[in-house]
């Protein structure tokens, strides 16, 4: 294996499960990381207390609020990559510019967007215990910029069961359109989508 241009360890993979609050990122990313035996992190745990306080009060974050948080996530990805570790990160990454910043961490990055109707998300948000109030869903949806054609990744239907979503995520990741296979896990090839 040869090194890449970023200084990160070669062929590390970073799967970033993205979407609005309540779309299922933490749930799906943790299950996927367990299944693929990759290191998991939840971007919620990287927010400075001021950001959490703001969201708890029902105030949407600004680009300025999010910048240091995104930088700390890119650093985490870079450090894991440099240690030869692949990762699964649950992170809203609502805008293209946020995702571009995360990709600066190096390695092979793929975004899995949990996408679906706001009504489903809202009903899930209302029944969980979390600092993020359901009232912020509207601003999350307004801020969201879906994956563009030149971004590495795919959208997944959040209305499916957890198992179905993780199955589809795994199929995409190891299939021909997904990430290059790591040396110890060859592509299955020819998987039905
Ligand atoms: N596929 C699913 N089917 C049914 N319920 C789900 C599914 N995925 C997640 N949930 C539930 O929906 C709620 C929201 O999920 P979760 O907290 O993982 O979302 P999130 O995107 O990480 O939210 P946030 O960004 O606000 O932390 C949780 O109660 C979770 O158990
Ligand atoms: O960019 C943002 O507005 C934030 O990251 C939110 O998306 C929350 O962190 C999360 O979704 C709530 O738990």
From TrEMBL:
CDD domains xref list:
GntK
Per UniProt, the keywords (alphabetical) are: ATP-binding, Gluconate utilization, Kinase, Nucleotide-binding, Transferase
Sequence ranges of Basic and acidic residues compositional bias: 184-193
Q: What does the record list as GO biological process?
A: D-gluconate metabolic process
Pathway listed for it is: Carbohydrate acid metabolism
Q: What is its EC number?
A: 2.7.1.12
> Disordered: where is this region?
171-193
Name the reaction it catalyses: D-gluconate + ATP = 6-phospho-D-gluconate + ADP + H(+)
What do the Gene Ontology cellular component annotations say?
A: cytoplasm
What are the GO MF terms of this UniProt record? Answer: ATP binding; gluconokinase activity
Q: Which InterPro entries match?
A: P-loop_NTPase (IPR027417), Therm_gnt_kin (IPR006001)
Instruction: Give the family from UniProt.
Output: Belongs to the gluconokinase GntK/GntV family.
Q: What is this protein called?
A: Gluconokinase
State the organism named in the record.
Ornithinicoccus hortensis
């Amino acid at each position: 294996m040869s090194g890449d241009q970023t200084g990160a360890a070669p062929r590390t993979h970073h799967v970033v499960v993205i979407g609005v609050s309540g779309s299922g990122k933490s749930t799906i990313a943790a299950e996927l990381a367990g299944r693929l035996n990759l290191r998991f992190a939840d971007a919620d745990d990287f927010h400075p207390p001021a950001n959490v306080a703001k969201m708890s009060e029902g105030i949407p974050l600004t680009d300025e609020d999010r910048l240091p948080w995104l930088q700390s996530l890119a650093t985490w990805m870079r450090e894991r990559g440099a240690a030869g570790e692949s990762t699964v990160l649950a992170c809203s990454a609502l805008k293209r510019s946020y995702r571009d910043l995360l990709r600066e961490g190096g390695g092979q990055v793929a975004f899995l967007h949990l996408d679906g109707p706001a009504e489903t998300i809202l009903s899930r948000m209302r029944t969980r215990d979390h600092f993020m109030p359901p009232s912020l869903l509207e601003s999350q949806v307004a801020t969201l910029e879906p994956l563009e054609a030149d971004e590495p990744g795919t959208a997944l239907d959040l209305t499916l069961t957890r198992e179905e979503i993780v199955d589809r995520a795994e199929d995409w990741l190891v299939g021909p359109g997904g990430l290059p296979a790591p040396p110890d896990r060859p592509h299955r090839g020819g998987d039905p989508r």
